[in-house]
């Protein structure tokens, strides 16, 4: 029955305690128990009191081999089993290999002195047995005391070992928690680095958009310069037209002078011949007048037909005098109106300059205050971040070897990305500086064109003075024509001066915009330095920079609005100047003469 029971328990995994007390187990029972101990892994307590396991040495040896192979049994009761000293020796050999048994009860057996020594010797190798009962075995007292001391030593060792295991378990838990915490911190750090990368990429995109806006502003300024060049070309064309008119007037004056000289000679000869030849005088005068008219038609090419008769010429001179008087009055009235408009434009431009200057000073003060506040806040954040970083480095000094290498790689990638972004920013800035240089060259060309126009005006004034010297001997018609010419020249000078003032205003605006762009470059450089200093944790700094960039974009929009307003004013002025020139050309007497021709 025991063999069947123990055979069934060999594969059992739920029974923890087995009590077979008082069942008269002998050889076959001992062998079945040895097989159970070799195969079963769940039984922790085995009670075999009041049996006869020691009757057969072969059966008990088989039991001891099973005990030697078992590493799960903790309590074994072998009281009253007729165990002698030889079987005690085999049990001692099994105990040397066993590492799980903690309590062994061998009372009321026949172990004796030899068995006691064998058990005492096995205790030098077995460190897990904490309780060994040997009463009623004829074992000397000194051996019993030695066994008790060994048991005490094992108990102390087991206590220390359990405490050590508990401490090791607690430390392992703490180490795992620390590892988890540091892993979480490392993941947070990597997330922060990823966020910083995203912020840097976003700031790079914002910088690209801002540079494209600056590029558009520069393109608009270039278009303004091209429009100014077109205006200068129109002015040059107007000056060339005025020069042509002056040349035509000079030819007209020369032809008129020659005509008057020839007419005076003819009248002198007619007066002398009148004394001698009264009858032929009228015929000769008619021939002289026809010859003079033919000569004038060949020489002038741009002047109306001369008077066919001397009497009709006097009437025509009087009519021309009246026309010139009316034209002079009308031109004076237009000059007064133009001066009033010019004065109003000057006052309005001066007011706009004062407003822009005050607005620029306010913006500069606001920007300096904002930059100082942002620098102070950045320094405070740097100090706080530095303290946090030092604390984290001290805590992670033992478990951070792998994390440091990955962080170094991440920082190298960040540095590469920053260097690439900085290189692209420098290239864009160099491109903008090149465009600014081209704009300054175009401004110099405009100034050269102004100087050429001044020279042309000076030449026109010299020609006008020469014509005035040649026309001193003519009649009031020539004097009125000279006054008309002088008034025209004065209008030209005023128009040229107006254009010069407008060009100087445009140059001043361009210089102001260039200074603003230099300020923007300095701000961009300051932002790059701040970005380099706050490479670890500066999400808030990036938000501040985005606000600054928004302010800069607002300023750019304001400047674009100013530029568009200036462009509209320039277009109005150009249209006004073109209309004034066209009305002047169409309303002048020379224009009417040329149109009749």
TrEMBL record:
Keywords: Coiled coil, Cytoplasm, Cytoskeleton. One of its GO terms (cellular component) is plasma membrane. The keyword Protein biosynthesis does not apply. Pfam families: LRR_6. The gene is Lrrc45. This is LRC45 protein. The keyword Transmembrane does not apply. It is found in: Cytoplasm, Cytoskeleton, Microtubule organizing center, Centrosome. InterPro entries: Centro_Cilium_Assembly, Leu-rich_rpt, LRR_dom_sf. Residues 289-569 form a coiled coil. Gene3D superfamilies: Ribonuclease Inhibitor (3.80.10.10). Its main location: cytoplasm.
